[in-house]
Amino acid sequence: MSHLRRPTIAFLTAGLFLLLMPDATFGQESPRQTPDHNLESFAPLDFPDPNRYRTADGRPGPAYWQNEADYRIDVRLDTARRRLTGTQTITYTNNSPQDLRRLWVQLEQNYFQPDSRGARANPGERFSGFFEDAGYTLSSVQVRRDGNTVVPDTLVDGTRMKVGLAEPLGAGGGTLELILEWSFEIPENGADRHGITDVRQGTIYQLAQWYPRMYVYDDVNGWNAMPYLGQGEYYLEYGTFDVNITVPRDMIVAATGRLQNPGQVLTDTQQERLRSARSSRETTMIIDSTEVGRPATRPEGDGPLTWRYQAENVRDFAWAASDAFIWDAARAEAGGDAVLAQSYYPKEGLGTEANPGWERSTEYVQHSIEFYSDFVAPYPYPNAINIAGRVLGMEYPQVAFCRMDFRGRSLFGVTDHEFGHTWFPMVVGSDERRWVWMDEGLNQFMNQYSEDAFYEEGTTQSLRELSEGMSSFLQSPYGDQPVMTYADRMRSRGLGPLAYTKPANGLMLLREHVLGPDRFDSAFKEYFDRWAYKHPKPADFFRTIEEVSGEPLDWFWRSWFYETDVADPAIASVDTAATASDTASVTVEQNGELMLPVPVRLTFRDGTTQRRRVPEEAFYTQDTNTLRVTEGLLRRVTVDPNGILPDTSRSNNTWNRVSSEEMAGLPAANGSRLEPVRLDYEGTTSVSRTVLATSNGDAETWTIVADGTGEGPDSLVVDRETLRPVSQSLNTERADIQVTYTDTLVSGTAQAQGRSIPFQKRTDGPVLFEGYRFHHPLMALSTMPLKPDFAAAMEVFSLPRSVKTVRYRADGTETVETPAGTFETHVVKLSASGGGVSGTAYLRRQAPHHLVKLDVDRGGQTFTQELTSISAPPPTSSR
Fold it and tell me: Which of 186, 294, 538, 606 is deepest in the core (most CB within 10 A)?
């Protein structure tokens, strides 16, 4: 490992003092013998200076302030023209210590104009929706103060409007009203955050970013008037909303806040069903599938209806309207208070018993509200509403928009994620446009525990999967941007890993490995309590975790958030020269700049085991640390035995004692030293192990992946110049994968979070993914180039047809479908050859997967390692 060395005055002074000592024995050492230090990895992190507004321990300071924006809005939906028209009054209060000479207002609908900055910055499909007639028509802008109304000077620049003030708005509580009249045509696809969906029984309107909103003026940046470019989300002030929504009579409305006039817009039957739902844990139908579109579901009369809502202390307001909604509800518990969990969806959202759909949505909402109320703090609102439509997944106060064709675990995952956002950023109001990880990453971290609880799965497995995926990502072409990159400056394919997965992975490592749940949980909850309904910055989060946990974590924040450092803990050596004794020396090494504590498992000859832990402090001044083992003869030493660290090379994690008799029976190639490629299957933990064949030291070729459980061999010994392990695996626990095998092509789709992600691999080319999974990015098979002279093939045995479809389901099962029927188990052969190297692996694809046989040939020398016997030789196969 190489580090940039910056000698400090303290270091030079200490060195001079020791050199002047008569017995300074280290003065006799040459520079080559001096151990490397790791001062850069462990140097203090330079946070902003604390002040009266933000303290050194992460709390809001005694003079902390933030401004307030209250909204009164009347809006009308014109379904014939698909247009919104509104009049609104913003009461803006300046609590800052500065007079304000101007206001800045967000006009996000202007993003959809074809020549907008966003259209140029985000030409891709997801954040699209650009069309010719897009954007606000502002028919009136006025400022009212002290009873006087004036027309201010305004300047509209894309998604921003500057409002000049003839007289400054006074510091410490000055108030004015900004009155606007506007209209716009609703985008069909509103950058995957709102839009219109036509269904069999009508139309669904999901409305967000629909009204002009105030930018935030804060103590760090002043006005945060960054343009809306599509990828970066929102930073908003808190306030009270009074919103009147006028829609055609046959429509049902769902919105942020409490409905103020249910007697005018709901039937007596619907009101009674709602009262029943508030006391029922079972889902109650408010409008069932047989009632949709019937006149009896609407109050008697003619003309449109106005739905009146009020919400206090929220930062945004979203709503939906449809004539095709099924509507159900049930009671959820939040710290002793009742919350009405609700779902609105069309018939297209209904699933089947085997693949449930939106009929289970309210159950999912219940779980999320109750789990996070216990994990962080009680849910603070009266309603939690899930609304089906075209939007993949988007969060608003008390409302979530999710894709109507989601099913099963995908629907649970996106519902759970969006309602997790209630805590971050709906209550803890961070700046999403700059620090996207402060809401997406913290939320994704919580989602891991919520999903594990709902499906009764283990936290260790979730952490392992995150770490394996992250180690692959960090070595990919997209791994060179840090988490602290602004949202709009992240590559689109890096957004998922950087904003969601990497911070979630890091916080799980802190909780499960560095701090422990007790210390982490108290700090995490304290951060929420301190900054609820306020505007924290990254340093406020970092300082709070350190202050409450009592642990200095500069080294972790720097490597994981500010830099792109990687972890590669390894066993440098095991000294068992004194074989007659029970004493050995195990040297653990850090080959990366991220120096996490290193867990070590010692397995003795008698089968007993012992756990050791090398703390990060052991690597302050050198890359290695030696453990003295006196408890017995060692059989195996394993670094990170549970596979929870984001280790970029697991080939150096295991040492096995191999007898001279065993070594004598293994081949050597060109006199090269034989070293073990460790396929460690000890215990009950399923661990991904991968072998990568290469033609030379820097050419990546074909990857063979195997997961297994149960006792395995001590080692598989190969020439390390020929084969070396890497970490590449596809997470089948969180994505439904369908793969079709033909003679020349492996192709298919990954259904992840409701998105269909196609991929393909020719037998002589790399696997290619188009896009990535939104909340759980598919990163594993994106970087597997093959040299021109290197061929690879995937064969499936015991199948009667040459074309077959394999379905890898999210619950861990799989089937192989052919015209002749369905097979629940089969054997897959992965083979590769070229550059003088060939290799073959047979895998029995079950849950967990088992590597049953591995053949390796180099230069005419062949050996076979049997891990589990195959009951019969595979028959002739076709790809």
Answer: 186
Residues of the chain with pLDDT under 50: 1-32, 578-579, 659-746, 750-755, 757, 759-879
Q: What is the rounded distance in angstroms from the CA atom of residue 764 to the CA atom of residue 244?
A: 61
Cα separation, 239 vs 69, whole angstroms? 5
Token pair listed for 447: 């989602």
Q: pLDDT tens for residues 373-414?
A: 999 999 999 999 999 999 999 999 999 999 999 999 999 999
Contact assessment for residue 176 and residue 143, using Cβ atoms and an 8 Å cutoff: yes
Contact 41, 3 (CB under 8 A): yes
pTM: 0.76
Buried b (16+ CB within 10 A) or exposed e, 723-735: bbbbbbbbbbbbb
Contact (CB, 8 A) for 864 and 718: no
Judging by DSSP bridges, how do beta strands 337-345 and 383-389 pair with one another?
parallel
The two tokens of residue 316 are 């945004």
> What distance in Å separates the CA atoms of residue 806 and residue 823, rounded to the nearest whole number?
9
- DSSP per-residue codes, 425-463: IIIS---TTT-GGGTHHHHHHHHHHHHHHHTT--HHHHH
Range list of H helices, 669-732: none
In 3D, which of 568, 834, 560, 513 has the Cα closest to residue 696? 834
Residues 175, 94: contact at Cβ < 8 Å? yes
For residue 566, what are the CA distances in angstroms to 532, 594, 705, 744, 859? 33, 5, 22, 37, 35
> How far apart are alpha carbons 540 and 58 in whole angstroms?
4
Spatial distance between the Cα atoms of 419 and 426, rounded to a whole number of angstroms: 10
Strand 569-575 with 598-604, pairing: unpaired
CA gap 623, 587 in Å, rounded: 10
Cβ atoms 128, 105 nearer than 8 A = no
Q: Quick check: 289 and 326 in contact, CB under 8 A? A: yes
- Residue 349 per-residue DSSP state: G
- Strand runs (DSSP E) across 568-686, as ranges? 569-575, 584-590, 598-604, 609-614, 624-629, 634-639, 654-656, 674-677
Q: Where are the beta strands (DSSP E) in 763-870?
A: 768-769, 791-796, 804-808, 814-818, 821-823, 827-834, 837-844, 850-858, 861-866
CB 370 within 8 A of CB 377: no
CB 90 within 8 A of CB 70: yes
What is the rounded CA–CA span in Å between residue 235 and residue 206?
A: 21
Burial of 578 (0-12, 13-18, 19+ CB in 10 A): exposed
Rounded CA separation 600/471 (Å):
19
Output the pLDDT for position 748.
52
State how far the Cα of 671 lies from the Cα of 424, in Å rounded to an integer. 59
Q: Which residues share a beta bridge with 207?
A: 319
Rounded distance between C-alpha atoms, residue 871 and residue 784, angstroms: 32
CA 808/CA 735 separation, integer angstroms: 8
Report the pLDDT value the prediction gives residue 35, as an integer from 0 to 100.
57
Q: What is the DSSP letter of 650?
A: G
Distance CA(369)–CA(384), nearest Å, equals 8
Structure tokens at 275: 């009262």
pLDDT digit string, tens, across residues 743-774: 344 455 544 444 454 544 443 333 333 322 22
Q: What are phi and psi of 107, to 5 degrees?
A: -125, 70
Residue type, 330: A
Cβ proximity of 711 and 681 under 8 Å: yes
Q: State how far the alpha carbon of 305 is from the alpha carbons of 220, 264, 298, in Å.
A: 44, 8, 10
The predicted pLDDT at position 788 comes to 29
Query: Is residue 261 within 8 Å of residue 243, measured between CB atoms?
Result: no
